[in-house]
Amino acid sequence: EVQLVQSGAEMKKSGESLRISCKTSGFTFTTYWIGWVRQMPGKGLEWMAVIYPGDSDTRYSPSFQGQVTISADKSINTAYLEWSSLRASDTAIYYCARTASSSWKVPFDYWGQGTLLTVSS
Amino acid sequence: DIQLTQSPSFLSASVGDRVTITCRASQGISTYLAWYQQKPGKAPKLLIHGASTLQSGVPSRFSGSRSGTEFTLTISSLQPEDFATYYCQQVNTYPHTFGGGTKVEI
User: Fold this and answer.
1) I want to staple B92 with a disulfide (CB 3.0 to 4.6 A). Which of A25, A31, B25, B32 is the partner?
2) Does A105 touch chain B (CB under 8 A)?
3) Predicted confidence band at B106 (pLDDT cuts at 50, 70, 90)?
4) Per-residue pLDDT at A47 exceeds 90
């Protein structure tokens, strides 16, 4: 069974750093793209970035380039999303998701449960 | 970035209604379009990929079609469990942008 299990809710202050995780199981981690999607309170979905753990190839949305870092640890089948300096505007739910195949031109077919991040100023 | 414009943003409907949601791409994306359903407090669920291919396990009342850069999600007979927000996503070009969403309410 394919599973993506995300780390728990976080409450942080502006300027702090953070790394959230997405632990996967039930599939070959190195042969699918793993991505992150942001959903701000009451708003729609925003595609942030993806990584191909097999070779660490990464792609970012221009809106998030330089604001976050996506990474993956093949030894524990886990993907990460990291901030070096949080802002109040980073308050959102963050979902990790897996692409439907190893192709980069396919949608996400499995999703994590979401990680709620609250950043106070 | 490719922009996806969904319409309407909000839709009021009744059980049994036929519902149509439109997603227009700012440039050609072939059939690289997917549709998702999201219910409150839940992660999105993939309904359709390749513009018209039903994801495994999705009821056949859902269907997708394409005409040029305009894509349509149709629910043939709305069921109580279909009240949710629907999003389109293009996967032709990075970043794989989402549409703004359509909320389907009673």
Assistant:
1) B32
2) yes
3) confident
4) yes
